Amino acid sequence: MEVDTAPAEDPGAVNAAPYADGWLLRIRVEDIAGALSADAYAAHCAHTQGVRR
Questions:
Q1: How many Å apart are CA 16 and CA 24, to the nearest integer?
Q2: Sequence-separated (6 or more) residues with CB below 8 Å from residue 15
Q3: What's the confidence (pLDDT) of residue 37?
Q4: For a 10 Å CB count at each end of the chain, is N or C smaller?
Q5: Beta carbons of 22 and 14 less than 8 angstroms apart
Q6: How far apart are the first and last CA of the chain?
Q7: What is the torsional sign of CA 14, 15, 18, 22?
Q8: Predicted confidence (pLDDT) per residue in 18-35, tens digit
Q9: How far is CA 1 from the centre of its chain?
Q10: pLDDT at residue number 36
Q11: Which are the contacts of 2, defined by CB distance < 8 A and separation ≥ 6?
Q12: Which SUPFAM superfamilies does this entry report, sorted A to Z (predicted)?
């Protein structure tokens, strides 16, 4: 994981250029085999909407 400290100095960069100077963190995923597809994630969110854990 990599954390960008620049937005702490210029918070507006997060909205102005989130894919350039305004990124917050980068995460490298090593094993994605168990991850949900976009459709499965949407279904999960719809099913659990409003459920507090």
A1: 13
A2: 22
A3: 92
A4: C
A5: yes
A6: 26
A7: negative
A8: 888 888 999 988 888 889
A9: 12
A10: 92
A11: 25, 26
A12: Single hybrid motif (SSF51230)
DSSP string, the chain: -EE--HHHH-THHHHH-TTTTT--EE---S--TTPPPHHHHHHHHHHHTT---
> Which amino acid belongs to residue 40?
A
- Encoded tokens for 17: 């250029």
Q: What is the pTM of this model?
A: 0.48
Output the pLDDT for position 49.
Answer: 81
Residue 51 has pLDDT above 80, yes or no: no
Name the residue type at position 33. A
Query: What residue type is 23 in one-letter code?
Result: W
| Residue 44, amino acid | H
Give the amino acid at 45: C
